[in-house]
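Below sits my pick:
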Amino acid sequence: MYGNSTLAVALDSDFRENLYCLPHEAPYFPKNNTTMKSILTLLVSASLFFTATDANAAASKSNVGKKLGEVKADFLKTKPVTAGKPVMLEFWATWCGPCVASIPHVNEIHKKFESKGLVVIGLTQESNQDIKAFVKAKNMEYNVGTDKGGKINKELGITGIPHAVLLNKAGEVVWEGHPASLTDADIEKVLK
């Protein structure tokens, strides 16, 4: 859904004999705790590597300087007014652990800067029907909507989530990266 990237890991033959998954069958996990610890260490290391890389790593190209048109999405509530206002777009999904972990930070950005004119919008490719209960349960206080067909996602070349872009009042991307990397100083610049 968010790109064609695949993480491939070469495993030795002993391990392949202990772990396999056939279509429509539950995977068999080895009973050996050392093997399971190795698997978890590998997965955690890979996760840290991919989240600690360049801020633009979740986009196929840098979008800084690109002018983005009107945000056309199917919003859960009233469509926010974005014309002439700075906007933070956050691309996320309900099934994405790092996206869910970013919600409190994005809520804080919304609370802190809404009165100063910043419009915060969370965009997913999931249907509003699928996200309605999730948004309520996670207390997502900012604007949330569906990027139907991933049009905005594709226009920006987003290949991984969570990913955020910060637009100035003219609708130009001035910052992009992981939402947790967005600082108050970055936001203050677009509020001027």
Observations:
- The mean pLDDT is 79.
